[in-house]
Structures are given as structure tokens and as C-alpha cells.
Amino acid sequence: MKKHNKKLVIANWKMNLLKDPAINLARKISEAGDISVDLVICPPDLLIDSIKSQTNISLGAQNCSAHAEDFGACTGDISAAMIKNIGCNYVIIGHSERRKYHKENNDIISAKITNAHKAGLVAIICVGESLEERQEGRSHDIVLNQLSALPPTSTPENTIIAYEPIWAIGTGKSASLTEINQMHEYIRFEKDFKIVYGGSVKCDNAKEILSLGQVDGLLVGAASLDFEQFYKIIK
Ligand SMILES: O=C[C@H](O)COP(=O)(O)O
Fold it and tell me: Which GO terms describe its biological process (predicted)?
């Protein structure tokens, strides 16, 4: 049974935008009226401080360190405590691009979620199967295994689950409404948290996806980089 009424739209800018266009986009979004959803933008880390100081948008990071300490000899890492300190309230963890390019497994993802919770951040945990896994009928098992990375600190208040089938990310082919609703229902049976959908969300399919009973919101990649399109989504 769906319990969460307010829709949430999370923009994942990934590794895109230089400083000036990023600030311009964030300011346009911040100053836009008639926004009917809760909104979170996850820019590249280097842009967070500038956007924080020039807009009133709620912000998140796209990753955090798995290291157990907030500070230390961990070259290139940014801790959850640092992300919180710079003014973010959210962090995306376990995106399929990080699972693929950085070989993140359940142990690493679990450590990152624990760190996010300890820092007072809401962890947005990405789960989803590949096309091959779906065709083999293993979607539920894959997602269930990914959900097992959630540490005992996870609650509906500090954790959001993003269902992102890998075959729908950046392909222009989103999952069908039935596929989305069924997987969200399955996830909710395991974890009754806020569950958002990601994967080729555009202005022309966002409304019907958001209207699904099991969908609490969206995680938007490419379409969040274009103001006109993103505004139609959040309006
Ligand atoms: O985090 C966002 C997802 O990877 C979706 O990306 P996309 O909207 O470009 O398909």
C-alpha cells in the first residue's frame, strides 16, 4: 500500500556542466514558480558550494567515501560528514555507473550508506537489473540482493530507494508503466521506504510515471540538464 503522497524529483547531473552554466541552470530552477514536487539537485561535488550559496535548492552529492572515518588518508575521497557540512541533505549511493566503473559491491555500498546515515544524510540507494538479468527472469533476485546492502541504520526517514533498470538508463527507452509499478510494489514489500524511478525519464513520460500508485518520485539524469525539459517535469 502506497503511503507517501508528496512526489520527489531528484536531478542527477552526473559528470556534467562547468561552473557558470551549472549555476545558471540551478538559478533558473530555483527561481521558477509553480513547482509541484519536492526537488533535490545532485551536482558534481565541486559545484555544490556555489549552487548552495546562490540558490535555495535542496542539494545532494552523487557519492561518498566508504572509509570508516570522516577524515584521513584517503586520497580523492569526500566523506559523508564533508557533504553534510557543505550543506547537502542527500547523497546518491550505489548508482549502476559506480557499480560498473568503480566495481562497487554490496559491502562498499553498505559502508557508504552507514556513513551517510551517521552524517545525518538521506541516502538515495540505486538498485536495478541489467537487460540480460531481466530477460533471464532474475530481476527480482538481483534487486533483492542489492537491497540486502541496506544496513540496520536504514529507516523510511533516512533512506530512499531508486529503482533504475540499467537497460533504461540513458537509452531513451524507459521501463513500461507495468514494469515500473510491479518492481516498486516488490521493493515496497521488502522495504516500505520512499521509492523513486529512474531511467530515460523525459518531459513526455514523467507525468504518467509519477501518476503510478507505487511511484513516489523520479531520479532524472539527462533531462535534468535542460531547463525547459526539466521544468516541464517538475511543474
Ligand atoms: O541517475 C539517473 C539515471 O541514471 C537516469 O539517467 P537518464 O535519465 O539519463 O536515463
Answer: gluconeogenesis; glyceraldehyde-3-phosphate biosynthetic process; glycerol catabolic process; glycolytic process
